[in-house]
Amino acid sequence: MATGSFAEANRINGSVYRGSFKGDHAAVKVMKGDVSREIDVLRQINHSHIIRLSGFCFHQGITYLVYEYAEKGSLSDWLQNNKMQHEDSYNSTGILDWKQRVQIAYDIVDALNYLHNFTNPPYIHKNLKSSNVLLDSNMRAKVANFGLARSSDTDHSVPVMTRHVVGTYGYMAPEFIETGLITPKLDVFSFGVVLLELMSGKEAIAAKGSNKEGELLSTYINEVLDGENAREKLQWFMDPRLGKGYPIELAYSMAQLAKNCVAHDLNSRPAVADVFMVLSKLLSSSLDWDPSDDLQNSRSLGNGR
After folding, report:
1. Domains of the chain listed by start with CATH number
2. Can you tell me the distance from the alpha carbon of 94 to that of 256, in angstroms, rounded to the nearest whole number?
3. SS3 call for 32
4. Where would I find the Protein kinase domain in this sequence (predicted)?
5. In terms of C-beta density within 10 A (0-12 exposed, 13-18 middle, 19 or more buried), how is residue 159 classed?
6. With contact defined as beta carbons under 8 Å apart, do 266 and 197 qualify?
7. Nearest C-alpha neighbor of 70 from the set 93, 47, 95, 50
8. Residues 185 and 173: beta-carbon distance below 8 Å
9. What distance separates the 2 farthest-apart alpha carbons in the chain?
10. 157 band by pLDDT with thresholds 50, 70 and 90
11. Rounded CA gap, 132 and 217, in Å?
């Protein structure tokens, strides 16, 4: 494994470095302390939209985790940090278009649906956020960072509580912050926040200096969709880099889905399987959407006045 002795030039983010093994790129995470949970989880699961653990080793109290390499970096880099605003070999604008965003959302919920419903035991990720979603060379999403993941009972009927509330504010569900309650709806809430990020290009918590400083994206969506002129307000909410390049009715449906996912009451949130079904339909409609159709319709309306 070659990482250039963990040179700064090979640092991807934090303690993760770019390396190569027999000519293939890999990501190497350097960890201190107990990382057995992440290793145990990733050794038991296998899904195209979950980052693959290729191997690991221990040396002098340090663990080296070797993952498949996600060439396009994290979703948060594309949405908020403007690191991808230079010309990209895959995307000449460095901006995710509408269809790519819906595809990424589908990939993420596909991974969550697998974790919640198709593994034995089921798993709750507990730390879903845009920086833990990586993009491969085809701009397909892979959920990463399973250090906080935990298994749950098969029918999710037994409530699990923890006094050790750890996560990223803005993505953590209210019941987890208040009582330490852990259910699959924890991931649903976090996914709703990521969905809102994909739509708006905004951060989970409004940045300092903005007119919404400190406001949670999960709260802001209620202002957008409640009351009159919801579609008009939604257009102001959408990422301005998209311009008019999205179908407003599909965006409205996605915003409603996101709002349901971030409901304060966990019992009002849909199950991941239901979110997956809705997003499957939204993805199909989005892939069929032709921007020229909307342009033609708007011209027809204008001529008919």
Report:
1. 8-68 (3.30.200.20), 75-294 (1.10.510.10)
2. 27
3. strand
4. 1-283
5. exposed
6. no
7. 50
8. yes
9. 76
10. low
11. 18
Helix runs in the chain, H state only: 36-44, 75-79, 98-117, 174-179, 185-200, 217-225, 230-237, 248-261, 272-288, 291-303
Q: Specify the amino acid at residue 108.
A: I
Dihedral of CA atoms 180, 33, 48, 171 in degrees, nearest 10, equals: 30
pLDDT value at position 83?
52
Task: Give the pLDDT mean for 203-228.
Answer: 86
> Which residue in the block uniquely carries the two structure tokens 């399987």?
273
Q: Are residues 195 and 202 in contact, defined by beta-carbon separation less than 8 angstroms?
A: no
Place of tokens 């969506």: 221
**Rounded alpha-carbon distances, angstroms, from residue 166 to 45, 141, 173, 182:** 23, 24, 11, 11
Record the tokens describing residue 112, joined without a space.
């969550």
Residue 13 host element (H or E): strand 11-13
Cα–Cα distance list, 73 to 40, 45, 144 (Å): 24, 22, 11
Residue 87: the pLDDT is 40
The enclosing H or E element of 67 equals: strand 62-68
Confidence of residue 304 (pLDDT cuts 50, 70, 90): very low
Q: b/e per residue, 3-40, with b = 16+ CB within 10 A?
A: beeeeeebebeeebbbbeeeeeebbbbebeeebeebbe
